[in-house]
Amino acid sequence: MEIDLRSKIRDIPDFPKPGVRFRDITTLLRDGPAWRHAIKSIADVYRDRGVEMVVGPEARGFLVGATVAYELRVGFVPVRRPGKLPARTLRGEYVLEYGQDALEIHLDALEGCSKVLVVDDLLATGGTIKATLDLVRQLGVGVVGVAFLIELTYLGGRENLKDYEVTALVRF
Amino acid sequence: MEIDLRSKIRDIPDFPKPGVRFRDITTLLRDGPAWRHAIKSIADVYRDRGVEMVVGPEARGFLVGATVAYELRVGFVPVRRPGKLPARTLRGEYVLEYGQDALEIHLDALEGCSKVLVVDDLLATGGTIKATLDLVRQLGVGVVGVAFLIELTYLGGRENLKDYEVTALVRF
User: Fold this and answer.
1) CA–CA separation, A136 vs A138, rounded Å?
2) Which of A52, A65, A87, B50 is the most exposed place for a label (fewest CB within 10 A)?
């Protein structure tokens, strides 16, 4: 059964600020068959590629990443904002449109891993995912690919991910 | 194969503040077979109970909730902090140890649903999950059960959930 994932994504005008059109995945997420199809579609791309772990940033990256990990029968490693992870962490800072932000990963999270899949819900300018990838590489681990539900192609985020294989299920 | 989930949970002393022992689920989450076993164990309890949707609060509730929804072949509805959900929301406030906080759910998220499963990673005092349950009930939807990976029994959170069937995989 083919499901049109694009039709499951809701447009919200002027969110989070005037002039921005927000692509809302909650309408895809609440549709059981669409959610299953989306996760399976990402997993199928990477199923025989030796992925040992899935890594993803909070909070929406948790939705996709933990579920893809489940389908691939591997574990999931969360990347979080400072102060959220309880054990020793590696921190990376990155630039936002206004100011900067930081992300952390547990220092021991990828021990014993050599190949991971990095996942988030949406590729916009790519700042968050680039920071996530930098943390993974600083831990000395290889990246099989980077997968998203949605890519906003007009924001050019793929330019930040030239060194990686990028998968996006729906492109706007 | 029986997996001892308790042994997969890591103790972090003095986090987030001195004297608190934090139960860290990231060590369970990064273990593929343990993660699979945990999710299946929750799903098995509710598999033939007519669950039409899973609901869970951010951020760690997303990990468990979205994956349980996937296994149950239903959708997932996120409950988030104010300002995160893009469409019209219902807001509920709740009391924390110091001050108060609020959670939101999309007003239309449970349209057409009559029975849901509510999920989070950990039951402590129960404030967050009670606020989540109140939002679901205000939307006129029934709750089949409330499920957690971990319950901290000494905090008495179950007292806040007397009206509900509570499942916890590991109890401390």
Assistant:
1) 5
2) B50
- C-alpha dihedral, B11 to B15 to B16 to B22, nearest 10°: 20
Q: Where are the domains of chain A?
A: 49-171
Average pLDDT, chain A: 96
Condensed to tens digits (0 to 9), the pLDDT of residues B31-87 reads: 999 999 999 999 999 999 999 999 999 999 999 999 999 999 999 999 999 999 999
**pLDDT tens-place string over residues B91-150:** 999 877 677 889 999 999 999 999 999 999 999 999 999 999 999 999 999 999 999 999
Q: Name which of B151, B147, B152, B153 is nearest B167 in CA terms.
A: B147
Choose among B58, B74, B78: nearest Cβ to A26. B78
Which of B32, B70, B75 is the closest to A74 by Cβ?
Answer: B32
Q: Do B76 and A31 touch (CB under 8 A)?
A: no
Structure tokens at B41: 């164990």
Q: Which residues of A touch B71 (CB under 8 A)?
A: 70
Given a contact cutoff of 8 angstroms between Cβ atoms, the answer to whether A58 and B29 are in contact is: no
> Which CATH code is given to the segment(s) A49-171?
3.40.50.2020
User: Could you report the predicted ipTM of this complex, rounded to two decimals?
Assistant: 0.97
> Active-site residue B60, yes or no?
yes
> What whole-number distance in Å separates Cα of residue B148 and Cα of residue B143?
14
Find residue B12's DSSP bridge partners: B22
Distance, CA of A155 to CA of A151 (rounded, Å): 9
User: Residue with structure tokens 């002027």?
Assistant: A14
Question: Residues in chain B whose beta carbon is closer than 8 A to a beta carbon of chain A?
Answer: 10, 12, 15-16, 22, 24, 26, 29-36, 39, 53, 58-60, 62-64, 66-67, 69-78, 80, 83-87, 106, 109
B85 Cβ contact partners less than 8 Å away, ≥ 6 residues apart:
A26, B78, B104, B105, B106
